[in-house]
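Contributing new records

If you add data, match the layout below exactly. Sequence lines come first and carry their own label; structure lines follow with theirs. Keep one chain per record. Anything else will be rejected by the validation script.
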Amino acid sequence: MISDKLLTPDYIFESSWEVCNKVGGIYTVLSTRAKTLQEAFPDRLFFIGPDVWSGKENPLFTEDDELLKAWRTEAETKDNLKIRVGRWNIPGNPITILVDFTPFYAVKNDIYTQAWLDFQVDSLHAYGDYDEASMFSYAAGKVVESYYRHNLTVADKVIYHANEWMTGLGALYIQKHVPQIATVFTTHATSIGRSIAGNNKPLYDYLFAYNGDQMARELNMESKHSIEKQTAHHVDCFTTVSDITDNECKELLEKQADVVLVNGFEDDFVPKGRSYSAKRQKARKALLNVANKLLGTRLGDDTMLVGTSGRYEFKNKGINVYLEALNRLTRDKNLKRDVLAFVSVPGWVGEPRKDLAERLKSKEDFDTPLECPFITHWLHNMSHDQVLDMLKYLNMSNAKDMRVKVIFVPCYLDGNDGIVNLAYYDLMPGFDLTVYPSYYEPWGYTPLESMAFKVPTITTDLAGFGLWVNTLKGHYATLQDGVKVIHRTDYNYSEVADAIRDTLTEYSALSPKEIDKVRKNAAAVAEQALWKYFIKNYYVAYDVALRNAAKRLEENKF
């Protein structure tokens, strides 16, 4: 429910590289939130994304030639914009505008020069995806300007919400050229903070001492850092996704968030009742079957299935400490069940293993392992892969007498990978426990999703989600709460590995009744993170932006 005391928008435009483009965690934020906002602002919510599927069918987007037809004609003929209008194929089916940003490459130098003159955005040191993101961002700003000019007036309260540094240029464009529109900018993780952590530099103990601009120069991140910092300082409302990232913004961007927009989710993808039990059984059978055929062994139904997943950020996501914990678990005499652990992170996949695929077609029981009995798909970089390197270093060979076995699934679990052939959400119910011991994690959807599937999880207090759970519980959450939150610092790697090992051992000793209680508690925590509880923060952000925009207009006499 929106408070009567808050200013509310009449129209919301929201841009992100992930609109109809499933490439990262922000996709989950936007796609699960859309239904809640669409219900509050029916067809007055417009998402703007890059038309990167041009010439190909986008399964996430349904074009509608009649939708916004009059404006689309104006935008194409008078404003020279190449756009497609339709709906995003997600719950709520919001109106979506996909824009072809490639025509702006021809004038990118002029765009960058003007951004420097207007907002001191440094694009001179750009490389990689900076140009692509910036041209999309600029194009998105032009789209909103076009719609406003043709359809709206100063009497309409309008929000432009830009997500991540990739949309910063568009937010600044709107700020200058359509000052009547209130701007909101969300950084989901600072580009420089992620880079510091990813380059094996201690982030948290020295955060107060780091200068963001200096570190950007050192790590060759100047342009991305510049657009992110300048956007944060100039928009009407700057936001981020957790208290831990807010502190990062304060130190590295020299700008604290006006509002913290904690990430919620919808659990409508989680099966219930008999459907859940059937999916859990099917998933466990599939995971054990892959293992048995790969390892040439017979793991019992009582095997404890443990998993981690997400982006392949070896240190930031805590994959290294997860493997270290599993190694230590092999020597734990208190372990009561055999453990089969999965590492499901997309690597540089070559192809599904033909030898494993052939075995999976057979109903025969095999008693000899395949070559490299710890990976399901061949990689292009087998000799330089971090997971494989660490397994080799730890001598985790998956020998028959080892009570802890590890399998690396280096592909996107889309249901068509050639080996597992079940989608991620169809596999999730099969696990007994998940482990996400992140070092750098602004929020953390993966542990939240796990708990929604009644699968208890392990995370850390360096993840925004972990901090939120501790606040919710009023103490460091334990396994009995459905989520174990481990204290993590720059330097306590070994203690974290021990804590993960001990939690896995603790779970292995639980009775069926105790396990059932832990699983129910996990689901209960996830229930508290639904969008219906967190959306109120967005209304606060809209209010802040609208009031600051009105003040800005008054001061500048627009």
